[in-house]
From TrEMBL:
Domain of life from the UniProt record: Bacteria
Membrane-traversing stretches: 6-28
GO biological processes: carbohydrate metabolic process
Keywords: Hydrolase, Membrane, Transmembrane, Transmembrane helix
Protein name: Uncharacterized protein
């Protein structure tokens, strides 16, 4: 019986300590500024020095924003040239000969072109060239019936 009472008392004391620690941890975190001030601890420290510290972490390779945009457009063009692939060339239709300039484009994306990928990416569509204009500028005659 004595052992049972001792266990009950020990359990109650342990539970009270656990509750006290949880509540104390909560309020210690919430009022850490007040506690630090009361105990005389500094919560912030301002360091001033005469040294000129370079605080720019990511330095640009370009002298202006226009130069960076021009470079990114050039890289995008190169990536497109190197990565666009013809997956199926039945009957050796492509490449077109120089006298074959009349073409027709098919599909929803030839009219409502998708200018980006999926996810949170975005693109400035004001600088994008429409497919018809791009093909016309390279010497093709685009059939306007399906556009």
């Amino acid at each position: 019986m004595k052992n049972k009472n001792l266990r009950i008392v020990a359990t109650i004391v342990n539970l009270l300590l656990i509750v006290l620690l949880i509540v104390g941890h909560y309020y210690a975190g919430r009022y850490s500024q007040v506690i630090s001030t009361y105990l005389g601890h500094e919560t912030t420290k301002v360091i001033t020095s005469d040294e000129e510290i370079d605080s720019e972490y990511y330095k640009s390779d370009f002298s202006s924003q226009e130069e960076a945009i021009e470079y990114s457009e050039m890289v995008t063009h190169e990536i497109g040239k190197e990565s666009i692939v013809l997956l199926n060339n039945n009957n050796s239709v492509l490449p077109l000969s120089n006298d074959e300039v009349n073409i027709t484009v098919f599909g929803q994306n030839s009219v409502d072109f998708v200018y980006g990928g999926e996810g949170a990416s975005s693109m400035d569509k004001s600088k994008a060239i429409p497919l018809e204009e791009a093909l016309s500028s390279t010497g093709f005659n685009v059939n306007p019936t399906l556009l």
